[in-house]
Amino acid sequence: MKKAYRTQRNFRRETAILVTQILKTVELYQSQGYTLTLRQLYYQLVVQNIFANLQKNYAKLSDLLGEARMCAKRKDTSSCLA
User: Fold this and answer.
1) Residue of 34, 55, 33, 57 lying closest to 45 (CA atoms)
2) Does residue 63 lie within any of the structural domains?
3) pLDDT by residue (tens digit) across 45-63?
4) pLDDT tens column, 31-50
């Protein structure tokens, strides 16, 4: 079984900031005992004016979370958000 499907990716500065905002939102809801689905997270980001409510932004969030998960599976995650 493959351990990684993609080559290492370094996020741009703007994307790293976005990932940080997403993590803050997720942590806020987790501290209250909630687990957000992709759709719930997306609409929370829309309400916070982090994303405009556009279909392309939903797809962008989905892709970004997939990339972030792959990054988190590697041992050295600091390079991903550099």
Assistant:
1) 57
2) yes
3) 999 999 999 999 999 999 9
4) 999 999 999 999 999 999 99
